[in-house]
Design a protein that fits this description.
single chain, two-stranded antiparallel sheet, 6 strands, extended
């Protein structure tokens, strides 16, 4: 793989680089955003890597002509890629594309602020799961009374 910055690559080279990265560097049990430019329109899918295989989600049209798929930080190279850089680059592109649609141009600071707001709005606390081992040497999830009520309420609707 070449040591060039991702910003210097064209759309086809970027796509190939990300596919190569997903095949060789994406950690098992993780996913990443993959975008491609087809005739000026941006399409997106999600790649999920299990222990033995890679799955590709449904391809959806994301943005129209003139849109960008990613907005890479200046110093991003193949060797420094990780899932968070890919996601933030995609989020930055979303902000830039939305501004273009409104006829605006944002500064780097405005883009960074909107990306941070977007990322903060997506975070949530992962609940702790309690497990116990049964006499048959199986593991089962231990639910609180509140969790049982929520499940029952959900199943009734």
């Amino acid at each position: 793989m070449t040591a060039s910055h991702l910003r210097q690559l064209n759309d086809e080279e970027t796509f190939s680089t990300l596919i190569n990265w997903a095949m060789h560097k994406l950690p098992s049990l993780h996913s990443m955003i993959l975008r491609i430019n087809v005739d000026g329109a941006i399409y997106q899918t999600v790649i999920r890597k299990s222990i033995r295989q890679i799955r590709v989600g449904k391809l959806t049209r994301l943005a129209g002509p003139g849109a960008i798929g990613y907005d890479w930080p200046e110093d991003t190279r193949y060797e420094s890629l990780d899932i968070s850089i890919i996601e933030k680059s995609a989020f930055r592109a979303n902000v830039i594309n939305a501004a273009k649609e409104r006829g605006c141009e944002l500064s780097n600071e405005e883009i960074a602020q909107q990306v941070e707001e977007q990322v903060a709005g997506m975070s949530w606390e992962i609940p702790k799961i309690t497990m116990r081992q049964t006499q048959e040497n199986c593991w089962e999830v231990v639910l609180t009374e509140e969790e049982r009520e929520l499940i029952d309420e959900f199943l009734e609707t």
